[in-house]
Amino acid sequence: MVYSTRVFVALILVGMLGISLSMMLYTVVSTNDLELSLRYALAMFYPPLGLFGVGLSLLVGMPAHGYLSIRGYTTWPAYTAAGAVALFSPYLLLAGLSLVSAAFSNRDDLVPWLQGIAALGGVGLLILAVPGGVAGFLFWLIVRPDRTPTSLKGQE
């Protein structure tokens, strides 16, 4: 499958945006510190965090876009849901690894970010999923797979 430059640019932009939005939302809800959360809004320019977002976007977003376009799911709700799952999945992996690490190290405490998400309950889950949904929607707005000619579907 050949992807256009527009797809790569969109994946890079939404990867950086999704990671910084999730950091910002988590900070606002968990600490009520608006100034700190606005600093996290610029987190996409912090190279390790930005690279994590871009890497996640390329590793998960590109196959998701290929799958959705081949199957004919070209509407914004499909891309929004795929973005939410794409940003939510690494947190589930990190949570699982943190729990396994805590179990084998004879510690009762979890890593601080996992404690914060657990304390927030359902709101914590939304904090992890909503930025991915926003990123998926923005990807759809940039690429507009619903406007791709029928002869190019699945080849973009």
**Helix/strand class:** mainly alpha
Strand content of the residues, in percent?
Answer: under 5%
Number of helical regions: 6
Helix content: over 70%
Task: Describe the secondary structure blueprint for this structure.
Blueprint (H helix, E strand, L loop, with lengths): L4 H27 L2 H8 L5 H25 L4 H29 L7 H9 L1 H22 L13
Task: Summarize, please.
With 156 residues, the chain is an all-alpha fold. The protein is built from six helices and no strands. Helix 1 (5-31) packs antiparallel against helix 2.
Q: Can you put this structure into words, describing what you see?
A:
The chain has 156 residues and is an all-alpha fold. Helix 4 packs across helix 6. It starts with a helix and ends in a 13-residue tail after the last helix. The model has no long low-confidence stretch (mean pLDDT 76).
Brief descriptors of the model:
156 residues
